[in-house]
Amino acid sequence: MSGQQQQETIVHEPSEEFVDSTNVSEFMREYGIADYDELIERTTTDLEGVDDSGVEWFWDTLPDYLDIDFYEEYDQVRDDSAGPQFSEWYPGGELNLAHNVVDRHAEVDSETRNTVACIWEGEPGDVREITYHELARQSNKVANYLESKGID
Predict the structure, then answer these.
(1) CA 27 to chain centre
(2) Cβ density class 88-97: b for 16+ within 10 Å, e for less
(3) Average pLDDT taken over every residue of the chain
(4) pLDDT tens-digit profile of 31-61?
(5) Quick one: pLDDT band at residue 136, thresholds 50, 70, 90?
(6) Cβ–Cβ < 8 Å for 115, 93
(7) 68 with 95: CB under 8 angstroms?
C-alpha cells in the first residue's frame, strides 16, 4: 500500500460474557494463563521451568482437552523431519471427523443431542436451527445414499 495509510477497523467486538464462555478462555483458566500474549507464549515456546508449555505440549494436550476420540492413537504429536512447513500432525493416529463433530453429540444419552448444532440463514433472512440429532439423521441419509451408489 505505497503512499496510503492502512487503517485498522474493528468490525466486531464480542462481549466479555461471550469471550468468557469460549473453549479458549476455559483452557486458559484451567492452565493458569492470564491473557492472550501469555497464551501465545505458552503454546509456542518451551519455557524453562514451565512443564505446561511449548508446541508439543499444547498439541498433545488439545485432543484430551477437547475430548477428541482417536480410533487409533497417534505415535507422536508431529513429525517435522521433512521441515516444519511439511509437518505431519498426529502420525499413526486415525479418527473419524463425523463422529467427533456430530455423531457423539447426537447419541441417545448425550446431553447435547437436542441442542443446536448449526444455524442456517437464507438470503431473505429466514433462519433454521438444526440440532445434533437432526444433523446426524440428515448426514446419515446422505451417507447411505452415497453408499448405495457405490461411493465410500
Answers:
(1) 13
(2) eebeebebee
(3) 94
(4) 999 999 999 999 999 999 999 999 999 999 9
(5) very high
(6) no
(7) yes
Q: Give Dmax over CA atoms of the chain in angstroms.
A: 61
Residues 94-109 have a mean pLDDT of 95
Cell triple for 47: 519455557
Sorted by where each begins, the domain ranges of the chain are 96-152
DSSP annotation string for 67-80: TPPEEE--SSSEE-
The one-letter amino acid code at 52 reads D
C-alpha cell at 29: 483458566
Tell the burial category of 77 from Cβ atoms under 10 Å away from its Cβ (0-12, 13-18, 19+): buried
Query: What letter does residue 86 receive in the DSSP assignment?
Result: G
21 phi and psi angles, rounded to 5 deg: -90, -5
Measured CA to CA, the distance from residue 31 to residue 64 in angstroms comes to 14
